Amino acid sequence: MLNEPSVIALNTQSGEVLATGREAWQMIGRTPGYIVAVRPLRGGAITDYDITEKMIRLLLARVGVTRFNRPRVLICVPSAITEVERRAVIEAAKRAGATEAQLIGQPMAAAIGAGLPIDEPIGNMVIDIGGGTSETAVISLGGIVALEAIRVGSFDVDAAIQNYVRREYGIAVGERTAEEIKMAIGSADPTPDEVHAACDEVVSSIVESVIKCLSKAPPELSQDFLINGLTLVGGGGLLRGLDRRLERETSVPVRLVDTPLEAVVLGAGHCIEHYEALKVMFMGALR
User: Fold this and answer.
1) Could you read off the pLDDT of 204-240 as tens digits, one per residue?
2) What's the pLDDT tens digit per position in 135-173?
3) How does DSSP assign 96-157, residue by residue?
4) H or E segment at 261?
5) How many Cβ atoms sit within 10 Å of the Cβ of residue 226?
């Protein structure tokens, strides 16, 4: 129904919300001092509770929710989220207008959205590279068998590009420009260009986490990976050459899904549509 960046622009003097999503993203680095365009979520966790609540409230309003039709809400969160972070997400959703808030781990939602046979007794490995987190999970019989999660993602690639340009050329580029550079010429695979060198440290940590998860997987499931391969999802998975590098360094086939940006939310939508059957996969709401 909508697909926009998790950004909100505020007037710090009045507290008024000026814009959300793509419109707010365009304001980053271009506003006067009293207007701030911020991401209320960093590293998969809430950095500003009040702003997060405002953003959720606005998102609900944009899809037609009013105070008279309070919805049941399912939110995708990092699997390694702490109890405190879980509570903050749930309370923010409820204060924003949800009648009930449930959480599901992003790798599980991604696997569902990618159409993997997660209920069968075979090993499914999904690699979900988001903005603030990268998670690799082995899923079998509807549960996570092995997990490796790091608070590193595609936003860190943007920051690495910013730091590289500043260090090598003495030029400061903004967050938006760094993302544009990444999308245009960024690469995870060894190439002669400078942008690969700028991204390499972040990419290496993501690859290392995938290898660690593979080492945690039960031997009985390893054969399934060799046959079916690993499934790559998330916006970070679109970094040029990342699937090839993962395949080379793990010696396991890697498949980038057709809709990597939407896999997690499509999985969440499937869970909402089959709520009673799939609610066993939820992390459980704190009441």
Assistant:
1) 999 999 999 999 999 989 889 889 999 999 999 999 9
2) 999 999 999 999 999 999 999 999 999 999 999 999 999
3) TT-SEEEEEEHHHHHHHHTT--TTSSS-EEEEEE-SS-EEEEEEETTEEEEEEEES--HHHH
4) none
5) 11
